[in-house]
């Protein structure tokens, strides 16, 4: 029987990011402290990133590409780093989201991830799994904030969000966290390229109750759907299955409040929350 040496595991994207960062820094003759001053990050964080112990913050890849003139190498590696944060069953949907030209999402119990504040996201991660370490929560929160960065870029997708009124009644993370989230949501209703609508409880029963749905249009003109429950997610690509979800989403849009009324309602909650 032949016994061979075990194959080494392929390096993760985070390890590659850290290795390239160290190489470019050393080639430039910079200490961690000196580079940190140029790209606005602490020496300790830079050290942890180089050792693949810490998820790079969303703004760092562009800062590194600009400083080292690397043509987007760090930005490309970072996109893979973000995917690695999530379990395998969620990575396909995130890869599709990163390419989508149009995103339509319905959320029944939570504020959509693309609209969450970091504090709200952290509160959710802590509640979903109280055994997560602070470092793991940092990692997940950084990954979620990285997903949102594309909404502020030149290639931002057109987005439509329908949020169930129930999600606005669930005060996540304490008074300050919840108020900050409401302010963010109100701002999003008035942002070019995004539509936010509340589905009132008075709308009653509907076809998307019990979960969340994301519809995504890609460059090839292909639509996909992604359904998610508490701990599982399913990507749907078969035409009829996606069409049924798109029709259900269209019915919800017709029953949801207008963006103007949605903004008015959220602002009233903010005022009520301040008292």
From TrEMBL:
Q: Which UniProt keywords apply?
A: DNA-binding
Q: Which Gene3D superfamilies match?
A: lambda repressor-like DNA-binding domains
Q: PROSITE patterns from the entry?
A: HTH_CROC1
The GO terms this record gives for MF are: DNA binding
Q: Is Ribonucleoprotein given among the entry's keywords?
A: no
Sorted alphabetically, which SMART domains does this protein's record hold? Answer: HTH_XRE (SM00530)
Pfam family name, one: DUF5753
Superkingdom to which the source organism belongs: Bacteria
Which regions span the lipid bilayer? none
Protein known as: Putative DNA-binding protein
């Amino acid at each position: 029987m032949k016994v061979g040496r075990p194959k080494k595991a392929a390096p993760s994207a985070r390890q590659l990011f850290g290795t390239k960062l160290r190489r470019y820094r050393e080639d430039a003759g910079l200490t961690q402290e000196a580079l940190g001053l140029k790209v606005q990050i602490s020496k300790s964080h830079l050290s942890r990133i180089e050792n693949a112990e810490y998820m790079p913050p969303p703004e760092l890849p562009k800062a590194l590409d600009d400083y080292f003139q690397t043509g987007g190498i760090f930005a490309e590696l970072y996109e893979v780093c973000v995917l690695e944060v999530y379990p395998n069953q969620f990575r396909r949907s995130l890869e599709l989201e990163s390419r989508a030209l149009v995103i339509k999402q319905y959320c029944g119990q939570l504020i959509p991830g693309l609209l969450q504040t970091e504090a709200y996201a952290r509160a959710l991660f802590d509640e979903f799994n109280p055994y997560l370490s602070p470092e793991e929560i940092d990692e997940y929160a950084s990954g979620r904030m990285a997903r949102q960065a594309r909404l502020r870029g030149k290639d931002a997708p057109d987005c439509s969000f329908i949020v169930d009124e129930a999600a606005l009644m669930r005060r996540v993370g304490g008074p300050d966290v919840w108020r900050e989230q409401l302010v963010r949501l109100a701002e999003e209703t008035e942002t070019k390229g995004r539509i936010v609508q509340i589905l009132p409880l008075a709308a009653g029963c509907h076809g998307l109750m019990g979960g969340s749905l994301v519809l995504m249009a890609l460059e090839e003109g292909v639509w996909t759907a992604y359904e998610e429950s508490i701990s599982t997610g399913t990507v749907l690509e078969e035409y009829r299955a996606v069409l049924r979800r798109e029709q259900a989403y269209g019915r919800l849009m017709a029953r949801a409040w207008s963006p103007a009324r949605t903004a008015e309602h959220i602002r009233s909650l903010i005022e009520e929350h301040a008292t």
